[in-house]
TrEMBL record:
Domain G-protein coupled receptors family 1 profile residue range list: 39-287
Alphabetically ordered keywords of this record: Cell membrane, G-protein coupled receptor, Membrane, Olfaction, Receptor, Sensory transduction, Transducer, Transmembrane, Transmembrane helix
Compartment(s): Cell membrane
Annotated protein name in UniProt: Olfactory receptor
Transmembrane segments: 20-47, 59-80, 100-118, 138-160, 195-217, 238-258, 270-289
PROSITE patterns: G_PROTEIN_RECEP_F1_1 (PS00237), G_PROTEIN_RECEP_F1_2 (PS50262)
GO cellular component, one term: plasma membrane
UniProt organism field: Hymenochirus boettgeri
InterPro entries named in the record: GPCR_Rhodpsn (IPR000276), GPCR_Rhodpsn_7TM (IPR017452), Olfact_rcpt (IPR000725), Olfactory_GPCR (IPR050516)
């Protein structure tokens, strides 16, 4: 594009300019990052060493932990550096890479959550066929599709965004390179980008969320037919996954399904902060706290 100037430097305005709030945010983010890394690494180790956890459900849970570690590492370290430093500039290449991995990992997680709900649907609604359907080869194929889809989708958005001329301003009023605030810096018509966002939101967001709800509708109907002694254990596993699903999709939809990205900057920052920092930290806690297999393994390791 002849109108595009390569080598653009963006300035991330961050979360706040108030000194004491900056200090508080650095301290909080550091704690969140440490908990995220340690929580997900513990989950990965526990699933690895416990032979009883070598099942499709835990295979996908391991994938989720990898996504959470990578997702958090894409955002928090750079956020800490820019908050601590007086120089908040970020190169166009750095910005594009951060946006690429953020969108790729977010898309991958969206598809993975649907696959995890399908796994629970098969286990609960079709128990006699579960082992034959969810065999190792099929699980690996689903994981490959999940990761490939997320990373290919992200390429489209990065290419469309970084061919735009950013002539309104180079000050990005956000704490990382996210697509909606970047589009606001362009003085060119961004309708192809907006269309791409809505198409992705429909396919990777609404469609996957609908399939998840469809799976859980069947699961709930099946659970109601189960004897009360087994019902609680089955529901406990599903409740953990549903909590993660609603946390993830609720925050994503509130940003990417806003008409023409009209929500306030501060609202976008707050919601982005939840899904980029808090959800990766909460996921291992949500999946472990009511899971006796995981908690018992952790107790055995600590003894």
């Amino acid at each position: 594009d002849s109108n595009h100037t390569y080598g653009t430097m963006f300035v991330l305005l961050g979360l706040t300019n108030i000194p004491y709030l900056q200090a508080l945010s650095i301290f909080t983010l550091l704690i969140i990052y440490v908990i995220t890394l340690s929580g997900n690494m513990i989950l990965l180790i526990v699933v690895r060493i416990n032979k009883q956890l070598q099942t499709p459900m835990y295979f996908f849970l391991r994938n989720l932990s990898v996504i959470d570690v990578c997702f958090s590492s894409t955002i928090i370290p750079k956020l800490l550096i820019t908050t601590l430093s007086t120089d908040r500039s970020v190169s166009e290449v750095e910005c594009a890479l951060q946006m690429y991995f953020h969108l790729a990992l977010g898309g991958t997680e969206s598809v993975l959550l649907t696959i995890m709900s399908y796994d629970r649907f098969t286990a609960i609604c079709k128990p006699l066929y579960y082992s034959s359907i969810m065999n190792r080869r099929y699980c690996i194929s689903l994981a490959v599709v999940c990761w490939t889809g997320g990373f290919l989708n992200s390429i489209v958005h990065v290419v469309l965004t970084f061919q735009l001329p950013f002539c309104r301003s180079h000050q990005l009023d956000h704490f990382f390179c996210e697509e909606p605030p970047l589009l606001k810096l362009s003085c060119q018509d961004t309708w192809p980008n907006v269309v791409a966002v809505y198409v992705s939101a429909f396919v990777i967001g609404i469609c996957t969320f609908s399939l998840t709800l469809f799976s859980y509708l069947h699961i709930i109907l099946t659970i109601l037919k189960i004897r009360s002694t087994h019902r609680r254990k089955v529901f406990s596993t599903c409740a953990s996954h549903l909590t993660a699903v609603f946390l993830f999709y609720g925050t994503i939809f509130s940003i990417y399904l806003q008409p023409s990205f009209t929500s306030s900057i501060e609202t976008n920052k707050s919601v982005s902060l939840i899904y980029t920092t808090l959800i990766p930290m909460l996921n291992p806690i949500i999946y472990s706290i009511r899971n006796k297999d995981i908690t018992n393994t952790i107790k055995r390791i600590l003894k």
